[in-house]
Amino acid sequence: MERHRAALKNYQQILSFVFAVKEIKENPNILPNITIGFHIYDNYFDARMTYQNTLNLLSTWNRPVPNFSCGIQKKLVAVIGGLDSETSFHIINLLGPYKIPQVTYSFLQAGMNEQAWHPSIYQMMPNEAFQYRGIVLLLLYFHWIWVGIIAMDDDKGIHFMRTLTLMFNHNGVCVAFTERIPTMASVFDIVSLMRHTESMSILLNKTNVIVINAHIHTMFAMTGLINMATVADMSMAAISKVWIMTAEWDFTSHPSVAELDTQVFQGALSFAIHSKELLQFQHFLQILNPHYSERDGFIRGFWEQAFQCSLSNPNMDKENGEGCSGAEKLENLPGPFFEMRMTGQSYSIYNAIHATVHALHAMYSFGPHHMATEGGKRLELLKLQPWQLHSFLRGISFNNSGGEKVFFNRNGELTAGFDIINWVTLPNQSIVRVKVGGMDPQAPQGKELAVNEKIIKWHSRFNQVLPLALCNDNCHSGYSRKKKEGEPFCCYDCAPCPDGKISDQKDMNDCFLCPGEEYANKAHNKCLSKTITFLSYEEPLGITLAFFALSFALISTLVLGIFIKNQNTPIVRANNRNLTYSLLISLLLCFLCSFLFIGQPQTVTCPLRQIAFGISFSVAVSSVLAKTITVILAFIATKPGARIRKWVGKRLTNSLVLSCSFIQAAICTVWLCTDPPFPDLDMHSLAEEIVVECNEGSPILFHCVLGYMGFMAVVSFVVAFFARKLPSTFNEAKFITFSMLVFCSVWVSFLPAYLSTDGKYMVVVEIFSILASSAGLLGCIFAPKCYVIVLRPELNCKEQLTKRKK
Question: CB of 20 within 8 A of CB of 278?
Fold first, then answer.
């Protein structure tokens, strides 16, 4: 019975073979008047049995001796099989010298599918590289980047692991572990498998997604391991994973499924050779019974095993599971035992039969008209050799009964894709396959994979939430990956984005800067639009500065009015009226030029404000310098016999003011003609604001204007300082010294303050310096005089001015 059990696990494949032959026989357009025969052998996954069965095909009936023509000869045209690459390799070792076509429905090992190596093999499967590509695409689709790989400890398993690991590394997927399962060829391997049970439980805890090279040997061992784990009371959570299996596996074809807790594989995903539902095949299965064909040596054993009854004595009590009536229905069998829908492997066998027969039909159709002659006689059709079938198989192309086109590529591989199957287990241990997508290698890049995620049923452990397969938790937006030393690239820490940078997606490798017109929010996960800012009249700071500028301008005007009204008084006349008026007007302009710095910079105001500021201050400082020199000259001129008296007068002061102001005006003119100030946007000084400012154009000329003004201020201060001890009656130099000390202090403080501020506050610093220095000159020079003129008019007389200090 165990022999039957092993032989009948793929019984649907046998039925698909029989159905294809039946369909061909009933088609009068294919090989009319020619009878097709076939033999089905099971090698029980034994190499010796494979060689023996192949020799039987090459030999006469019941005498496995090839190359001898004796007895009734078999007319072998082609071989369909085998189920795995090892079987196909053993078969081709014997069929190769005869050049008999072998149409296999398994993936071949690397290099075996090359036509240059084995020109007699035709593969009813796509190239295995497409399946590897499909696995990678499926993992990337679900963002599974931390997965395990399980394969058999043989050449095919090693090749599978190496190929997948390399592809994973190139596509950003990390391998959590690789595990080779020992074969079960002997009892010692079973002991080895038991030793693997404990280590496997540790490995399985590393990830939720595991890729299995699911050919039949691997799954035999895997189910044995799971059964051992169950006996050892291993936690079901440890083995309830998302299993991704290759196209060789089919749950319903496995004889050990009855003893396996199928809930372990709930939600598993597997690749399958693309197939299409054939309604005629279902009808064929519905009418099948144990007496359908006497030549079917498998159906009785399958029937007894599937329905747990006996056909040898149908009169037994069927209720006790002992007798078979033969009227049982295959559609009543649970999924693990038999499926009414054609599986991918059965579909491949069905197409293999049709491909072989269509090639044979093309060869026979070609023969009578174009067949070469030998010795002047046409070759007989029945003497055509199997090797002549190759050219027709390579070029075969037909539509099967499902309406799908079948043809081989130049490497003898089927040009087709894969279906993606979701395995759904039911409480009665039944397993239902649900097609949830597909992989089309011929589709444009980026569109090869199609998945309907909504209909996928995951294992109950995941509560129908998409399982995660990550080495660690995702880095949220606002963080970036930071590599862990000594760990795979999928394992990382999460580092917060630095100031000014963001990450707006999960698991970003690096944070990035926002565009110039945007800035990073506090969470560093979004860019916000910057506000446009400038010193305006609508904000408190702008209003305050404008108020002070206007106030000082009015005070300057008031002082100028007082001096004009009292222009003939001794104190006004003694202080050089023209210089006084010039200084007051220039100070008035300095106060008023502050308004050019407030408000949005414009094309006109940007050049005008610096020029007005520079020239106005130059006139003011040169006037102060002229007043200081006038005081000194006036004191010297009062000495008896002084020759310098002729220099005291309007000509000297006017020349001094004009010449000093002219130099500043010349510098400003060069500035305007070469690289003048212009409106500009400062995107970078402030994180959250775009500052509308005046770009100074040439920084050299800008500093020349400030430097020249500072030079004159220092000269005025030095001259006034040395004249401070003159008699107090004439000593305006004391007030000038103090005023220039205030002026220089303000502008010395201005430079570091100006360079250390950003945005509109640079303008605030400049306005403050203008107001403070101008107010210092106005207050220190004119406050004492206004006090005497307005409040102490009795002191504003010639007698007071001519007094000498004792």
Answer: no
360 close to 31: Cβ distance less than 8 angstroms? yes
pTM recorded for the entire structure: 0.68
Q: What are phi and psi of 582, to 5 degrees?
A: -60, -45
Exposed/middle/buried for residue 464 (C-beta within 10 Å: 0-12, 13-18, 19+): exposed
Report which residue type is found at 716: S
Tokens of 681: 């946007």
Give the mean model confidence (pLDDT) for residues 532-553: 91
Return d(Cα 222, Cα 219) in angstroms, integer: 5
104, 132, 563 from 442: Cα distances, Å: 22, 15, 98
Q: Pick from 55-69, 262-276, 500-514, 625-639 the range whose average pLDDT is largest.
A: 500-514
Euclidean distance between CA atoms 677 and 701, whole angstroms: 10
Strand partners, 151: 180
From CA 610, how far away is CA 661, in angstroms rounded?
Answer: 15
- 579: which residues sit within 8 A by CB, 6+ positions away? 623, 626, 627, 630, 653, 657
DSSP for 580-624, written as a single string: HHHHHHHHHHHHHHGGGGSSS--TTHHHHHHHHHHHHHHHHHHHH
Half-sphere exposure of 783 (CA within 13 A, CB side): 12
Residues 6+ apart with CB under 8 A from 758: 682, 685, 686, 691
Q: What is the pLDDT of residues 490-519, one digit of tens each?
A: 889 999 999 889 998 888 889 999 888 888
Residue 455 DSSP symbol = G
477 CA to centre of own chain: 13
For strands 377-378 and 431-439, give the pairing: unpaired
Q: Are 359 and 387 in contact (CB under 8 A)?
A: no
C-beta separation of 94 from 55 below 8 A: yes
- What integer pLDDT is reported at residue 2 of this predicted model? 34
Residue 641 CB burial class (10 angstroms; 0-12, 13-18, ≥19): exposed
Q: In 142-234, where does DSSP find H-type helix?
A: 155-170, 187-204, 216-231
H or E element in which residue 761 lies: helix 760-786
The residue length of the chain stands at: 806
**What one-character DSSP code corresponds to residue 507?**
T
Range 707-714 average pLDDT: 85
Q: Which residues of 341-379 are buried (b: 16+ CB within 10 A; e: fewer)?
A: bbbbbbbbbbbbbbbbbbbbbbbbeebeeebeeeeeeee
Count of Cβ atoms closer than 10 Å to residue 763 Cβ? 24
Question: Which residues, at least 6 apart from 178, have a Cβ–Cβ distance to it below 8 Å?
Answer: 148, 149, 150, 151, 161, 165
Burial of 642 (0-12, 13-18, 19+ CB in 10 A): middle
pLDDT, tens digit, for every residue of 567-600? 888 777 776 778 888 889 999 999 999 899 898 8
Long-range contacts of 504-510, Cβ-Cβ distance < 8 Å, separation of 24 or more: 504/477, 505/477, 506/474, 506/475, 506/476, 506/477, 507/474, 507/475, 507/481, 508/475, 508/477, 508/479, 508/480, 508/481, 509/480, 509/481, 510/480, 510/481
How is 363-405 classified by DSSP, letter by letter?
HHHHHHHH--EETTEEPPGGG--GGGGHHHHHT-EEE-TTS-E
pLDDT tens string 726-760:
654 445 667 778 888 888 888 888 878 877 887 78
Question: What CA–CA distance (Å, rounded) separates 730 from 255?
Answer: 125
Query: In sequence order, what are the residues at sequence separation of 6 or more whose Cβ sits closer than 8 angstroms to the Cβ of residue 376?
Result: none
What is the Cα–Cα distance from 133 to 138, expressed in whole angstroms?
9
- Helices 540-565, 760-786: crossing angle, 10 deg rounding: 30
